[in-house]
């Protein structure tokens, strides 16, 4: 095996290792947060959205008794998108279009305590 082939194999193996160690692609460009039942039914994140466009929100909530669960994405001008998600622990994704660049807030709100997770990506 010549030096170029060996170098290419080493680079490929290193890239594969780095890729395997990276966080889930669902949050590759964005952020996420998990909140426990002591959070008072609110789990929010604030982040900077780099440019106008579509933002995806990933949410889940699991509770011993089903509750009304609402998710939202907001910006400096108020609410941009709002929706509801079942309280069954399954991660669901929704999209919000024409989100302006700048600071955005995403959250999930549950009546009562619950284990929740919220993430945004673009």
Give the strand content: over 45%
Task: List the secondary-structure elements in sequence, H or E.
Answer: HEEEEEEEE
Shape: elongated
Neighbour order of strands in the largest sheet: 1-8-3-6
Task: Describe the overall structure.
The structure is a single chain. The protein has a single domain (24-121), classed as Jelly Rolls (Sandwich), CATH 2.60.120. It has one helix at residues 3-21, and strands at residues 30-35, 42-49, 53-62, 69-75, 78-84, 92-99, 102-110, 115-121. The protein is 16% helix and 51% strand. The strands form two sheets. Strands 1-8-3-6 form a four-stranded antiparallel beta sheet, with no helix packed on it. The protein contains one helix and eight strands. The chain is α+β, with helices and mostly antiparallel strands.
The gist of it:
With 122 residues, the chain is of the alpha+beta class.
Topology, please?
Layout: H1 3-21, E1 30-35, E2 42-49, E3 53-62, E4 69-75, E5 78-84, E6 92-99, E7 102-110, E8 115-121
Antiparallel strand pairs: 1-8, 2-7, 3-6, 3-8, 4-5, 4-7
Give keywords.
4-stranded antiparallel β-sheet, elongated, 122 residues, alpha+beta, Jelly Rolls
């Amino acid at each position: 095996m010549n030096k170029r082939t060996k170098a290419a194999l080493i680079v490929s193996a290193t890239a594969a290792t780095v890729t395997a160690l990276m966080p889930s692609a669902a949050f590759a460009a964005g952020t996420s947060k998990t909140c426990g039942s002591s959070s008072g039914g609110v789990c929010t994140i604030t982040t900077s959205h780099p440019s106008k466009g579509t933002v995806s929100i990933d949410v889940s909530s699991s509770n011993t008794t089903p509750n009304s669960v609402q998710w939202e994405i907001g910006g400096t001008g108020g609410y941009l998108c709002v929706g509801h998600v079942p309280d069954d622990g399954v991660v669901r994704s929704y999209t919000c279009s024409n989100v302006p660049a700048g600071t955005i807030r995403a959250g999930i709100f549950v009546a009562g305590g619950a284990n929740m997770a919220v993430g945004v990506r673009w």
